[in-house]
User: What shape does this take?
Amino acid sequence: MREGSPTDGELLARVARGDSRAFEDLYRRYARPILGLALRRLGDRGRAEEAVQETFLSIWRAARSYVPERGQPAAWLYAIARNAIADR
Assistant: This one.
């Protein structure tokens, strides 16, 4: 993360308020590592890309449910990704 960039928590809070720019920033920050995780687990690029799409759709829909006191934003994002991967 570059200096002056919003934290993951700040981005999630903005996404929860419907901020599509914050969502784009989160996507840029996490899509590639989540795709890598999905590729390792699924072994198929098409299914992995679908899991990434499902992950970010779920993040957009559920951002308001993120509770900072329960854990780091990255852990929450990866939990969503693991669920999307498992569904494949």
